[in-house]
Amino acid sequence: MTQKHLSRRTLLRGFGTAIALPVLDAMSPAFAAASKLAGTNSPTRMMFCYVPNGIIMEDWTPKTSGRSFEMLPIMKPVEAMRQKLTVLTGLTHNTGRALGDGPGDHARAASTFLTGMHPKKTAAADISLGMSVDQVAVQALGRNTRISSLELTLEPGRQAGNCDSGYSCAYSNNISWRSPATPNPPETNPRVIFERMFGDVDPTETAAARAKRERYEKSVLDFAAEDTKRLQAGLGPTDRRKLDEYLTSIRDIELRIAAAEKSAASSVNLSVLAPGFEKPQGIPVNYAEHARLMFDLMALAARADVTRIMTLMMAREGSNRAYREIGVPDGHHGLTHHQNNAEWVAKIKLINAYHVEQFAYFLKKLDSIPEGDGTLLDHSMIVYGSGLADGNRHTHHDLPVLLAGRANGKVASGRHLVYGKETPMTNLFLTMLDVMGVRTGELGDSSGELNHLTV
Amino acid sequence: MCHNAKAKTAGLDLERLRDPRAAQAERDIWENVAARVKNGSMPPKGVPRPAPESAAAVIEWADSHVRRLDAARKPDPGRVTARRLNRAEYDNTIRDLFGITFRPAVDFPLDDSGHGFDNLGDVLTVSPTLMEKYLRAANQVVRIALRAGPRAKPLMERYDAEKTGEAKYVPADPEGSRLVTKGGLIVRHRFPETGDYELRVAIRGRGVPEAPPSPLAILMNGKVVETVPVEVGQNQKRFWEVRAHISAGEGELSAAFVYPGADAHKKPDNAGAFDPERDAFYVDSLELRGPFVDAAKLPESHQRVFVCSPAQPGRFDYACARRILNNFLGRAWRRPATTEEVENMLRFVRMAQKEGDTFEQGIALAVRAALVSPNFLFRIERDPNPRDAATPHRVNGYELASRLSYFLWSSMPDAELMKLAGSGQLFKPEVLTAQAARMIADPKAEALCENFAGQWLEIRNLNTVTPDTRRFRSWDADLREAMRRETTLFFTEVLRGNRDIRDFADAQFSYLNERLAGHYGIEGVQGRQFRRVELSGGQRGGVLTHASVLTVTSYPTRTSPVQRGIWVLENFLGTKLPPPPDNVPPLKEDQIGKTASLRKQLEQHRADPACAVCHDKMDALGFGLENYDAVGAWRTQDGNFPVDTAGVLPNGKSFVTPAEMRRILREDPEALARNLTEKLMVYALGRGLEPYDRPVVRSIVERASKDEYRFGTIIREILLSQPFQMRRGEK
User: Fold this and answer.
1) d(Cα B131, Cα B141) in Å, to the nearest integer?
2) Domain residues of chain A, as ranges?
3) What local confidence, expressed as pLDDT, does residue A32 receive?
4) Are B465 and B473 in contact (CB under 8 A)?
């Protein structure tokens, strides 16, 4: 979209020369970090990229461990970045298994992926899981940036019906959970994400007008919080809990505004930061274009330090999307129950590699953006993986896991690490949290940090 | 005897239940026994059948036993958790509150659903992301609806085809017909203010000299604003400009080439040496300039809020502010505001005064605040004693009005409902019934189709299905829309016409246009308009034969008798199926239709008795629909094998053709009636049903059965039922 004021002589391409941030119009940006970009202590970013329905592991898992392993076909697209990658083999999500709950491996694969918790089997009222690793990091670090975390997806959730064998759709549509009962629903539309990151306010607004606008917004929030408390007084426990959820959301936003007020910077100059980047207009029809636009936005968010914590689902778990553009007209999920039919397996491999190809685009992008003493990729840790290994048999062990980036030199990358059978996936997350400077004794079913990963 | 203490088939020991005291707790079992014996599914085939007299005696005994237990039971209306407005309800409420078309909720996160619906209090949550969107939406609504503060400056915005993607089908009128076009463009735009806008359309392409002329239509919300002739010319940008008066809010702007009488699937006969790169017309971009506003004319949405203006123009008038806020809060919060609430809101007007802004800006700020208050965002109902679960009480008149309007309209009550709520008249059964009839006749009742039927029949999933176009060449967006339209219009007819719900199982009519009729092989329907078509020949009738339902229950490459069977059992008849066991070997997909029919494979599959329990039922229903392919077209051959639809229904009755299957379903409407009642109750109440709701369901179904199973009767009985009119506290 190109926009200009008719009354002004100059055509302001894109969104104007400087975006006056905020989303919430009041939340001005804690672009404190913008000033840090020149220094050496760049923040570490933590991201997670989820692929559904498992991966054909025979073309994924390298045959040898250590540095000189050969990359198999599915992983090939990221070969160029191998020095900044770590392949992890042997990690398990035990909590994704049935454990007496019967079918529903897809719902459990997605829900357990970042939580390491066993979801309660229910279709409705009493959803219960656990906080996901990204949100544990958000609790400790989210206030450092204007947006605490971003959740994205390339495929919206199912709109009607049940999702998987008696599990609520919430379990297969979301991987980020802020509390046991509350998922963070991911966003599909790049335009909406962009507006969330950079707002849609008038770029020509004066400082005084902006300050007044923020005072107004604060008064609206104050009122909403007061009104909620007033209402809660006469209600029963369940209704009161519902309104607590609402109150917590208000608080979360108030805290972010407070953090933003402390920061000196009040706007980010996007035309300097990412010249030529234009506001997205909607959801591209083409899957690869959609993926690239989302990755562009994630790179932009990392670069502008809008947030340091992000999750992306390449499709929802159990997705039955057809990938015609690469010659696969069949639904992905349907295909994964291939029963070793060679033609089907070959098609899944195409899909698996296609997803990795999109991810490779992201890594290249991050690696092309210099920051401090290295690139954005050097300052990130990005997990790429699935909650299922073999989609045909629904296995939850030896999961496909790739860790990209060096986390500011804390991850010794360029290797294939093989861990003992049944090593909890959550041990990886515990290690990552430690790298982020967040100490938690445990996460889900973790039993300790991973050896050999960090320097 | 299967269900004795020893055998306990299906975990059921009826012997134990002979003792009336033991049976007290087992009401539901006896209800089930009566139903199963009645419809013939028990005893199962292969077991000697009881004589009709003894079966009748069992039914009579079980029925009367259940009735006795229900009569003795203390009624419990249950309680509903405070319901957050879901996306559809939010948008509709904003529409009715201000009279603007603006759908901010398209940007909200997807609402989670439970028990098949996305309006359940327990399941709807609030996240900080959603909170952000609420704050922003309130801000945008106020800017669009009210004339307060600085005016929107005229802006120019451009949408490029390159970035938004080509639109092949441009919706062209409310009947759902579409302009078929190549190279059209559709954009959604938020018009900040009501006023004049200039639209500038740029096209490219040389055109085909031999082809008939293809005028360019420029449309706003599906209405043609202007049609301009496009001559064959050079392949370079050409521009057209029109000026139109457009209302504030969300609008759909489109430009499309009209190929008169053309069928999208046929290549033009006389296209000659057509080079799409050079010759095809396509819309390159749409530019919008505006708004150009007449400052003296206040929009209707503004006047709805500003019911008075300050005695001295330009001054702050607090008496007027009180009137405005009292009126607005009473509508936005769907109940009269208290004096304290109005006084409390005056702070925003004072704040504006202190900041040196206008009176109107102060009111606008208060309106924003009211829209992010839980009083607006949630439907909260009060109990005199929230911890008393034992004493049911009636909801108050306003709460009843909201229950009614969110059920039938997915939106706020209108002035008439609020008036009846205030006077207490709404509780009178004849008033409530008359209001329901008025509301169902209102266009707003389309929400019940969209939201209830869309989820009950799963036709919302038409948005996400992706049939393999190499196998199903007829599939495209136009057909998808036509499918949706058929089911929507059919549901509307059963609802508005107060028809027999058995029409869902089998009916002699449907709504078709040329495209869908062609898809069905029905002749004599011409043009894009949908119209009622009387059906004959037995191929079609009822929702089970709608292409929409048949498509959403299929895989991209083939039909799934299992998914269709599950759909009929669960969505249509309300049969609860246990989840499948682990480690079921899958089908040999590549052989389907080649070396073995799908039916043969599935039959082998359920040779295993553990599978057969459910698959016998599911597959029979699914195979009964095998005459319809994965996009719902009629077929008699699947791959190399003739389609075999014969089967036996759960009630033991056998059929050979889909028409016979539907007739049997139609003749035994009790399961459908009970299921539809339950689904409507979940949707109306915003909670899952509990054991204490079963007597209510039973009595509603009974009454419906005595009134030809009219849809309207079921709705009326739900409205008059205890769970709908009452609530209680919680333990």
Assistant:
1) 15
2) 1-30+202-282, 43-188+287-435
3) 33
4) no
Q: How many CB atoms lie within 10 A of CB A237?
A: 12
CB-nearest to A161 from B107, B116, B158 is B116
Identity of the amino acid at B345: M
Percentages (nearest 5) of helix, strand, coil residues in chain B: 45, 15, 40
- Name the closest residue on chain A to residue B380, using Cα atoms: A239
**In which region does residue B224 sit, left (phi positive, over 0), alpha (psi from -120 to 50) or beta (all else)?**
beta
The pLDDT mean for chain B works out to 86
Going by CATH, does the domain composed of B155-292 fall within 1.20.1250.20? no
Q: What mean pLDDT is predicted for residues B74-89?
A: 93
Q: Does the pLDDT value for residue A20 go beyond 60?
A: no
Four-way CATH pick for A43-188+287-435: 1.10.3470, 3.10.450, 3.40.720, 2.40.160:
3.40.720
- Letter for the amino acid at B335? R
- Rounded distance between C-alpha atoms, residue B456 and residue B340, angstroms: 43
Cross-chain residue pair A166–B579, CB shorter than 8 Å? yes
Choose, out of B123, B186, B549, B555, the residue to mutate when testing the contact with A (most A CBs < 10 Å). Answer: B123
Summarised one tens digit per residue, pLDDT across range A326-347 is 999 888 998 998 888 899 999 9
Cα–Cα distances (Å) from B227 to A389, B53, B212, B216, B289, in that order, read 56, 73, 16, 6, 19
Cβ–Cβ gap B464/A159 under 8 Å: yes
Q: Which of these, B630, B648, B652, lies nearest to B639 by C-alpha position?
A: B630
Using one digit for the tens of pLDDT, what is the confidence trace for A132-151?
999 999 998 877 788 889 99
Using a CB-CB distance cutoff of 8 angstroms, which residues of chain A are in contact with residue B582?
A: 98, 102-103
SS3 of residue B174 by DSSP: coil
Q: How far apart (Å, rounded) are the C-alpha atoms in residues B613 and B33?
A: 18
CB-nearest to B159 from A1, A98, A320 is A1
Tell me the pTM. 0.76
Alpha carbon of B535: minimum distance to chain A alpha carbons (Å): 29
ipTM: 0.81
**Lowest-confidence region among A3-17, A293-307, B43-57, B204-218:** A3-17
Instruction: Report chain A residues whose CB lies below 8 A from the CB of B127.
Output: 178, 182-185, 249
Q: Give B101's strand partners.
A: B249
